[in-house]
């Protein structure tokens, strides 16, 4: 019973840390550009495909595959921002939201055209195998260890980056007040582009780790994890970097426990029910800051 | 205004002409048929029995449709090359969509179809079968395995096992081979009729045979990616055989996750598992030791299978799967029945339908095909044959006793 509980907990943390990495991308972009980038999940899918072809068809080592995926996704993210979102900087947020959904469909259909609908089996970039604990009764796979580690490192790096570097401070300034930031001599457009670049590079890492854990790759691979990760970001308090990590891991653990102890059918319903309860009690999410709107 | 009238007159005239041309065309197309029936059969290409085919050639189920089309075309070419009755196959795409399948069926009716070969997938097949029943077309499906396809329709026949039949056969096989495992876990997709149908029949038969089912877990859709809970439940209950009546995409994830967990029971699948070795990028060593029931083993050593695999590979450049073999067998079954019933190219589809129904259900009609020897059919349209159980070794199927 206890062993089963521990195993489920480990599986939940493994799933949750993937949600957390995706949620970090969502939260970065939302916090700074104040827009929901619904295409984020599909950038993840593109990153996974790039890595799949780099390591599978061209036989490159996994590290090169991951780096290549990051480069392609970074360029893709910046291009999407430049072409689709920048012209709408002054438009109502609803227009931007709809555009983001459009970009999401565009990426999915492009992938369908380029790579077909057959599911591909992703070769994990992490060696398969596991570490045994408690005399082999509990096992933690290498990919889980790598995912959790990557998640924590990225969270710490992002916190340090936004807190200490010049660009990071510019990002925080933009997130608080774009107009004032511009008056202080900050290039707002460049700062937002950089945010998309970082968010998309994170998406590439998330895509590779997602497909290393669950090795089926299809054009729709990114959409459901994308929605779950968005939920995680809201859960933890959207805009907050530690909040994304906390929200992601909690969401993963709740999902797995819901499956194990309530019903495999209702696990998604359980996840969203918890979200609703949290938002009723704490509308800004677990670690979200309450920002009063100034008129 | 006047100009308009002239224009509309011209348009009407053009329509009338095209209508007449249409009539003339169909007349000329029809006239040779009775004429040629006087001539010795098989001498002219005009006297062909028209077989319509329906299946997904594009979309997410395209693998199945393309295979059934190619297998059937290969059989048509072989039969025509032998002389005797001549056949022509017109295969239409339905994208695994019931509405598009009905459109395809209408196109085939206009073409003058006499026998329907299809549909490939269950949902479109159920939709089309109710039309063929009303319109009196004989229908033989290679792979739509639900009992909904045939129930209550005397004209619809299957060459594949029905879902419940697969489930009970699997339980019987496991009961007879205790070395595979004695404590059974079932993982199935309860959002899918195929998977649930097999699992339900398996559970009932397993109970009847006294098999011990220690864990039974489900998942809601084929998009599901995390199976840690299901596998964890099987492992903690000590299951040494995991029965998976599911499609190959979730199955490939289960095999992968089981390996990461260090859990190595015998995995036992059904015909939906066929195709797992063809997934691009799939590490085939994961499937080593996987046991599955399939209708056909492309690496089988008997002459029929070996010849079929060879000519299929020559013609299409890929290894045939069971759907290709089902399609091949369908055409041979139709041809054998036409031969026996004395069907000719000039018969109406209603007459062909009645003749083939009585032939298929006749007690002395049996077909030896790739997917089974001595296949016979009951009046309910279901086939009776023994399944082939194979084990995956080095990315190939090895037939088990």
Topology, please?
The complex is a heterodimer of chains A (295) and B (401).
Chain A: H1 2-33, H2 40-56, H3 62-85, H4 93-115, E1 120-121, E2 130-133, E3 138-141, H5 142-164, H6 166-176, H7 178-183, H8 188-213, E4 216-217, H9 223-236, H10 241-262, H11 267-281
Helix pairs in contact in A: 1-5, 1-8, 1-9, 1-10, 2-3, 2-4, 2-8, 2-9, 3-8, 5-6, 5-8, 6-8, 9-10, 10-11
Chain B: H1 2-30, H2 32-38, E1 48-55, H3 62-81, E2 86-93, H4 98-111, E3 115-118, H5 122-135, E4 138-141, E5 156-158, H6 163-176, E6 183-189, H7 193-208, E7 212-219, H8 228-236, E8 241-244, H9 248-261, E9 266-269, E10 291-294, H10 303-316, H11 322-341, H12 349-360, E11 367-369, E12 372-377, E13 383-384, E14 388-393, E15 396-399
Parallel strand pairs in B: 1-2, 1-3, 3-4, 4-5, 6-7, 6-8, 8-9, 9-10
Antiparallel strand pairs in B: 10-14, 11-12, 12-13, 14-15
Characterize the structure shown.
The complex is a heterodimer of chains A (295) and B (401). With 295 residues, chain A is mainly alpha-helical. Chain A has one domain (2-120, 139-281): Orthogonal Bundle (ABC transporter involved in vitamin B12 uptake, BtuC), CATH 1.10.3470. In chain A, 72% of the residues lie in helices and 4% in strands. Chain A is built from eleven helices and four strands. Chain A has helices spanning 2-33, 40-56, 62-85, 93-115, 142-164, 166-176, 178-183, 188-213, 223-236, 241-262, 267-281, and strands at 120-121, 130-133, 138-141, 216-217. In chain A, the strands form two sheets. A two-stranded antiparallel ribbon of chain A has the order 1-4. Chain A has a two-stranded antiparallel ribbon with strand order 2-3. Chain A is globular, with a radius of gyration of 19 Å. Chain A starts with a helix and ends in a 14-residue tail after the last helix. Chain B is of the alpha/beta class and 401 residues long. Chain B folds into two domains: 48-161 and 304-386, Response regulator (Rossmann fold, 3-Layer(aba) Sandwich), CATH 3.40.50; 164-294, Rossmann fold. Chain B is built from twelve helices and 15 strands. In chain B, strand 8 (241-244), helix 9 (248-261) and strand 9 form a beta-alpha-beta unit. The N and C termini of chain B lie far apart (83 Å).
């Amino acid at each position: 019973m206890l062993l089963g509980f521990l195993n489920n907990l480990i599986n939940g943390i493994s799933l949750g840390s993937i949600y957390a990495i995706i949620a970090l991308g969502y939260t970065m972009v939302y916090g700074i550009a104040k827009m929901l980038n619904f295409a984020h999940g599909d950038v993840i899918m593109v990153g996974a495909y790039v890595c799949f072809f780099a390591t599978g068809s061209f036989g490159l080592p996994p590290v090169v595959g991951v780096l290549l995926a990051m480069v392609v996704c970074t360029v893709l993210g910046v291009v999407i921002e430049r072409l689709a979102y920048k012209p709408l900087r002054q438009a109502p947020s609803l227009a931007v939201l709809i555009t983001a959904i459009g970009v999401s469909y565009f990426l999915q259909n492009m992938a369908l055209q380029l790579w077909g609908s057959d599911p591909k089996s992703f070769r994990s970039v992490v060696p398969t195998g596991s570490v045994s604990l408690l005399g082999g009764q509990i096992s933690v796979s290498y990919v889980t260890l790598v995912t959790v580690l990557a998640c924590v490192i990225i969270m710490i790096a992002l916190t340090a980056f936004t807190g200490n570097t010049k660009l990071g401070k510019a990002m925080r300034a933009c997130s608080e007040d774009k107009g004032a930031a511009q008056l202080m001599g900050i290039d707002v457009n460049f700062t937002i582009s950089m945010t998309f670049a970082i968010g998309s590079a994170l998406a590439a890492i998330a895509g590779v780790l997602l497909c290393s854990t669950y090795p089926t790759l299809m054009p729709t691979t990114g959409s459901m994890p994308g929605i779950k990760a968005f939920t995680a970001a809201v859960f933890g308090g959207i805009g907050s970097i530690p909040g994304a990590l906390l929200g992601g891991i909690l969401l993963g653990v709740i999902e797995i426990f819901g499956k194990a102890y309530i019903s495999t059918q209702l696990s998604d319903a359980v996840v969203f029910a918890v979200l609703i309860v949290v938002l009723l009690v704490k509308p800004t999410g677990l670690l979200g800051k309450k920002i009063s709107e100034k008129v | 205004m006047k100009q308009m009238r002239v224009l509309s007159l011209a348009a009407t005239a053009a329509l009338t002409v095209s209508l007449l041309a249409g009539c003339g065309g169909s007349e000329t197309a029809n006239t040779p048929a009775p004429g040629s029936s006087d001539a010795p059969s098989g001498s002219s290409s005009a006297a062909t029995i028209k077989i319509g085919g329906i299946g997904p050639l594009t979309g997410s189920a395209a693998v199945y449709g393309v295979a059934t089309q190619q297998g059937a075309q290969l059989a048509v070419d072989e039969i025509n090359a032998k002389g005797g009755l001549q056949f022509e196959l017109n295969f239409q795409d339905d994208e695994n969509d019931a509405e598009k399948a009905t459109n395809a069926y209408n196109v085939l009716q206009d073409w003058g179809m006499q026998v329907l070969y299809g549909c490939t997938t269950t949902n479109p097949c159920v939709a089309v079968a109710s039309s063929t029943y009303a319109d009196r077309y004989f229908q033989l499906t290679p792979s739509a395995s639900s009992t909904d396809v045939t129930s209550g329709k005397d004209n619809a026949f299957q060459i594949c096992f029905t879902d419940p039949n697969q489930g009970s056969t699997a339980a019987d096989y496991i009961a007879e081979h205790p070395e595979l495992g004695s404590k059974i876990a079932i993982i199935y997709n309860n959002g899918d009729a195929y998977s649930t149908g097999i699992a339900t029949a398996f559970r009932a038969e397993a109970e009847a045979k006294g098999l011990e089912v220690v864990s039974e877990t489900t998942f809601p859709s084929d998009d599901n990616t995390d199976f840690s809970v299901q596998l964890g439940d099987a492992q903690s209950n000590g299951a040494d055989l995991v029965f998976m009546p599911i499609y190959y995409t979730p199955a490939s994830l289960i095999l992968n996750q089981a390996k990461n967990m260090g859990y190595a029971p015998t995995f036992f699948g059904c015909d939906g598992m066929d195709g797992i070795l063809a997934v691009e990028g799939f590490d085939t060593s994961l499937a080593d030791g996987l046991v599955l029931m399939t209708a056909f083993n492309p690496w089988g050593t008997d002459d029929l299978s070996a010849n079929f695999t060879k000519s299929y590979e020559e013609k299409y450049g890929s290894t045939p799967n069971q759907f290709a073999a089902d399609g091949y067998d369908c055409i041979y079954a139709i041809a054998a029945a036409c031969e026996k019933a004395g069907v000719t190219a000039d018969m109406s589809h209603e007459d062909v339908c009645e003749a083939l129904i009585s032939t298929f259900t006749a007690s002395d009609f049996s077909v030896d095909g790739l997917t089974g020897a001595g296949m016979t059919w009951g009046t309910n349209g279901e086939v009776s044959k023994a399944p082939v159980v194979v084990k995956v070794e080095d990315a190939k199927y090895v037939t088990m006793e």
